[in-house]
Amino acid sequence: MGRVKLEMPSVYSFSIELTVRITDVNYGGHLGNADVLGLMQEARVQFLKSFEYSELDVEGYGIIMLDSVVIYKAQAFAGDVLRIEIAAGDFSRIGFDLFYRITNEESGTIVVLAKTGLAVFDYASQKRVSPPDSFVKRLSGKI
Q1: Residue 67 sits in a domain of what CATH number?
Q2: Is residue 110 one of the residues assigned to a domain?
Q3: In terms of residue numbers, what domain contains 111?
Q4: Residue-level pLDDT at 3
Q5: Which residues fall within 8 angstroms of residue 121, CB to CB, at 6 or more apart?
Q6: Checking CA distances to 78, which of 48, 84, 110, 143 falls within 20 to 30 Å?
């Protein structure tokens, strides 16, 4: 079986530290795969907040997830402090991607490399809309 590959950016514009909670640990004793997505969502919420946006308010629209790719590189355990770095990219008329590099803060080991494909969504009309220009410029560092 071929492995999924991700082309990751070299620069990340945002980072946050989150601690692995005991409730994030699965029966194997390490960070569970569903909980990784939860940590990524928390980091994404904080990333958007740093631009004064939210998942429900991006220039008057919300965002929805279209897809996700998660590549596990190492285990993480309860109490580990993880640095989650985020970069935005691949903007198009139908959406954009967020890239995540999750590193164990103490050891420097990369735990996860990931990407989420997102769309800007008009919840009132239940349709996708193009990402607003000001949103694209802010997230891509052009403002």
Answers
A1: 3.10.129.10
A2: yes
A3: 14-139
A4: 84
A5: 61, 62, 63, 64, 127, 128, 129
A6: 48
* One-letter amino acid for residue 59 of the chain: E
Listed residue (113, 129, 112) closest to 121, CA to CA: 129
Q: Model confidence at 140, in pLDDT bands (50, 70, 90)?
A: confident
Q: In this structure, is residue 65 part of a structural domain? A: yes
Taking residues 31-53, report their average pLDDT: 95
> Does residue 105 form part of some domain?
yes
Report whether pLDDT(54) > 80: yes
37-41 long-range Cβ contacts below 8 angstroms, 24+ apart: 37/68, 37/70, 39/82, 39/84, 39/102, 40/68, 40/84, 40/100, 40/102, 40/114, 40/116
Residue 9 placed within a domain: no
Task: Give the C-alpha separation, 51 to 58, whole Å.
Answer: 10
